[in-house]
Amino acid sequence: MEVDKGKGEAEETRKVAEADRDTVTLKSSDGKLFEVSKEAAARLSTVLAGMIAGGSIDDNGTDLKQIGSEALENVVDYCNKHANSIPSAALISSSISFNTAPFKEPEEWERKFVDRLSHDALFDLVEAANFLGMERLLDVTCHKISEMMKGKSPDQIREVFNIKNDYTKEELEEIRQELAWAFYDD
Amino acid sequence: MEPLAARSGGGSENLISALPDELLHCILLRLPSVAAAARTSLLSRRWRHVWTHMPELILSCSRPDGGPAPVASVFLDSVDAVLNAYSAPTLRHFEIHMDLFCRGHLPAHRIARWLQFASRRLAGRLDFYLPMHEDEEDTDRELILPVLERATEIKLLLRPNIVLRLPPGGSFTALTDLRIMLSTMNGSELGRLVSSQCPRLRKLHVLVKLAVDFDVSIRSKSLVSFFYYAGPGKLEVFTPFLEKISVCQATEAYIVAPNLKKVNWHDNAYDPSCHRFAVLSRHLQRLWINETSLRLMKPFDTVNELWLVLSIPECFSNRKIESLGHRLDN
What we know:
Shape of chain A: elongated
CATH superfamily of chain A: Potassium Channel Kv1.1, Chain A
Helix content of chain B: 10-25%
Structural class of chain A: mainly alpha
Protein name (chain A): SKP1-like protein
Number of strands of chain B: 17
Order of helices and strands of chain B: HHEHEHEEEEEHEEEEEEEEEEH
Largest sheet of chain B: 11 strands, parallel
CATH class of chain A: Alpha Beta
Pfam families (chain B): F-box (PF00646)
Order of helices and strands of chain A: HEEHHEHHHHHHH
Protein name (chain B): F-box domain-containing protein
Organism (chain B): Digitaria exilis
Strand order of the largest sheet of chain B: 1-2-3-5-7-8-10-12-14-16-17
Radius of gyration of chain A: 23 Å
Radius of gyration of chain B: 25 Å
Number of helices of chain A: 10
Shape of chain B: elongated
Distance between the termini of chain B: 77 Å
Strand order of the largest sheet of chain A: 2-1-3
Oligomer: heterodimer
CATH architecture of chain A: 2-Layer Sandwich
Structural class of chain B: alpha/beta
InterPro entries (chain B): F-box-like_dom_sf, F-box_dom, FBL15-like
Helix content of chain A: 55-70%
């Protein structure tokens, strides 16, 4: 009986602790659970910030039916890594430069983070970042995809992304003429 | 929407073309140029018009590393082609960035067309950087700034021989930040724009040559920060919420700004007989002057930071420097 009572108390304590714990549990479309720092989730994702503020976070795992476990694992991994990284001086100062850079360049760790992803995982992560309103992660993943296009001819880009050319020869020629101005900087 | 998970491990189908346009825009905006984005039209029918409604257009004409200065005419034609093809009703950022040393004609009426485009479509930020190089043969030099109702920030770095004329009516309702640099302007037009056509303007930065009429009178309840480098002529400022002012070149100035916290006075000497400050608090956070404007310390009793620029001739002995120090102490 003594033991049972102790167990009950422990259960109570656990419940109280969960109410104001500093992580949230997210559930992927295939039912896997992931824990992520509440602070990082709220800071990096407008959607999660809204759910945390609105109290719609489920302690048993908030359902994210749009996101598969592989993509969600990457999202959570990104949030945790982000929480531990210190922004570089370049990132802080870029906002005051004369020729304002439209995007902040990815940090070294962010580059490594997306470089290790497979083609499929990268595209799943772009959509997950978009779904969760994660502006910075969207920046980093889109930057990676644009890097895969840079300096390549249309033929080469089609090959990288497996895009099927559904134009006729005549149509291609017509577009090429329309876009004559766009070939000067080659 | 199909769960993203259903696709994972699906191999090599064309994932990129399945992304919604807004995500393709995120990707295209990170390519090195609008030209590179436009060339994706050639990929497939899905890509035909994606670039024509990107939310930002940043068109730059820059010199390749070590290469010759670019020619303006080629760039002018490509900007026209982009604007003709552009299909979105609004864009949030429109920027023309020409290399400082770009050569060739730059007729004002060509630039005016780009400003007209901005007037119709822009809801956000406008940046224009024109090259420094002046072409003697450019006789068409008057540029009219159309009303940009939805622009929030406007930065115009023009060239000294361009006369920037401002619209007689209409309101820049959303504008909070305006910079006009290196152009010729009419003093009364500048005053009218700021005083009655920009109700939300917080930051104003003008570095221009005045022509026709030289007096500028500014009355603004929104202005917080004001950099003024223009002359010759009289500057009048009535701004209840102004916190920061920099003045250069004004031969006369009358500044009523009860909430002033930071003052910079450059170039010409401050002379209390023709330059006056009306302030409420006689305390400043920062005063930045040179030795010809020491009398500007008079309207203020205390200052947290004093930046005093002294030019001391080499022949000055240490004793003279010491005595100057004593005078400053007093």
